[in-house]
Amino acid sequence: MSSLPAEPVRAPAPLAAVRSGVPEHGEPPKYFQVKQKIDAVLEELGPGATLPTERQFADRFGVSRMTVRQAIRELRLEGRVQRSGRSTVAGRPKLVQPLTLASYTEGVRSQGRRPGRELIILERLPADAALATGLRIELGAPVFHLERLLLADEERVGLESTYLSAARFPTLIDEFDPSTSLYAYLRGTGVVLADADERIETVLGSPREVQLIGTTPALPMLLLSRVTRDRQGEPVECVRSLYRGDRFSFTAHLTAEED
């Protein structure tokens, strides 16, 4: 009898498509076959390399340019290729962000990329019903709203809105540098983050969000909504983070609950 491995076996990321995309009723669509062939070309070329033109791909694979265009459109939505001027180039690997209480800055930096943030809004406003519930404050109580573009190597990859109680952090506007990590600032005030509830869903960005991030309305976005608490169980922040689906993926370590 073989022994169990000493270390847990981790699933590869990403997993290969189940059965290579072949449906139960027969052959996969022609565009999908072309997509797989172009994907193999991407593996050979490497990130940043310029792809052959649609016409060149059509001649190479013996299909129409429309079929090639549909295949490339899907690869672009998946982040496998991207536009660069009038050319299409192989995309860079997605940023892999762990679902932990580490900051965005720490997560991006750990992958050898240069994190950055660009301030859009830093304002004081009254809490609506949702914020009052999330932060456990009175309806209409003042909160700070911090909205920033998320950057990785100067590329716009997301948009983050954070809400904090103005009564709890009265000097935030005067002391906090919006280009730096908010979590580092909070630690400096003595706040220790302990746990959070987070919800993840797929959405399409609003016209304003699409313009700020610099994407297209058809690009799927990953929306993370989170309430973070300190060691005393008191809410510290409500956060709405919108990430480009073609540039981000998320990981989580799961453990089984005891019966």
Automatic annotation (TrEMBL):
InterPro entries: Bact_HTH_transcr_reg, Chorismate_lyase_/UTRA_dom_sf, Tscrpt_reg_HTH_GntR, UTRA, WH-like_DNA-bd_sf, WH_DNA-bd_sf
Record carries keyword DNA-binding: yes
Keyword terms: DNA-binding, Transcription, Transcription regulation
A GO molecular function held by the record: DNA-binding transcription factor activity
Protein's GO biological process: negative regulation of DNA-templated transcription
Superkingdom assignment: Bacteria
Segments passing through the bilayer: none
Protein name: GntR family transcriptional regulator
Source organism per UniProt: Streptomyces tateyamensis
